[in-house]
Amino acid sequence: MKNLLVTGGAGFIGSNFVRMVLAEYTDYLVVNLDKLTYAGNLKNLDGFLDYPNHKFVKGDICDGKLIEKLIDQYKIDCLINFAAESHVDRSIIAPKDFIDTNVTGTLTLLQAAVDRKIKKFVQISTDEVYGALGAEGKFTEQTPLSPNSPYSASKASADHLVGAFGHTFGLKYNITRCSNNYGQFQFPEKMIPLMINNALNDKELPIYGDGLYIRDWLYVYDHCAAVWKVLIEGKKNQVYNIGGCNEKTNLEVVRIILDRLGKPESLIKHVKDRPGHDRRYAIDASKIMNELGWKPSVTFEEGIVETIDWYLNNKTWLDNVVSGDYKKYYEQMYKGR
Ligand code: NAD
Ligand code: DAU
What is the pLDDT of residues 324-335, one digit of tens each? Predict the structure, then answer.
């Protein structure tokens, strides 16, 4: 297995994954297919675009002919699907985009993978497919799927399709379900980079509802290392949960950011809640830890400092992504909230 088709490799997690593979696994060819939506950014691949074993292709995962052509042309062995519409708030405003890419796009990839006899298909899913938790318990791989947002419903649909293609057509696959990622190159619609950007600009930090919603935070490098483990060593047709063991309330996260940036807590503003907001996510990642020997390498306290410092040191990247359409998005999402 040497030739990889990575989809969504110009987005946040996908670009970190492509960088990792090109830097650490130099005998692999990475064909990187990305539509370059608002969330895709070639700047995320700065310094790696011209690597001889990296072929970037602008295109849509819904384009079956293109997928087949790439698989044939580059003799693709394995496909790793990061491409998605990924933001819950946008899925509440425009759910159809999520069905198109996350469901129809995944179906298109699966069809091509079966037709071309791909050796393994890795679907990057999310803990949100399991729904929400109360104060106790964690999601295991046996937790029934119970998605609550249009985003998570589209991801759960994709997971079911992957399982069905394994069962019906003999596709070899793995599904990974991870918790909230943070780190370099995350688009500032997601909470952590949005709060960093606002704090840097002395703008209010919009906390949804009471701010006591809990997420488990996973450093993006740890996530990429886990996906690699699953790609290389994952057992046939298994699901693996990936978590950071870092449960925090949103208010705790925002206070850490303000403290690091030396900004006052008075910037925090409680705003109208997200409709259908899941109260708590927590991951039991013991399967990947015990079976594949993966574990997170950093605590949240370490990873968040590195992340904040990255945004401080990459102001040009940040200023570029918050110009243009981002301003319209921010107005639509937060004005009068
Ligand atoms: P992102 O929004 O930053 O990047 C998505 C990428 O997919 C972008 O580069 C975009 O251009 C590309 N894309 C979108 N539609 C496409 C299409 N039709 N064809 C080809 N490319 C297309 O997302 P992310 O945060 O990097 O998430 C990557 C994957 O991980 C997603 O599948 C997401 O559901 C999953 N995930 C993310 C998180 C998280 O915390 N960010 C957590 C769990 C799971
Ligand atoms: O759990 C995995 C999921 O994590 C991924 O599947 C999604 O792709 C990813 O976007 C993320 O979803 P969340 O909805 O948890 O992430 P987000 O960064 O949008 O929000 C994190 C928490 O912060 C959530 O409780 C909502 C809250 N929030 C978010 C924003 C953008 C705020 O309070 N204010 C905000 O402005």
Answer: 899 999 999 999
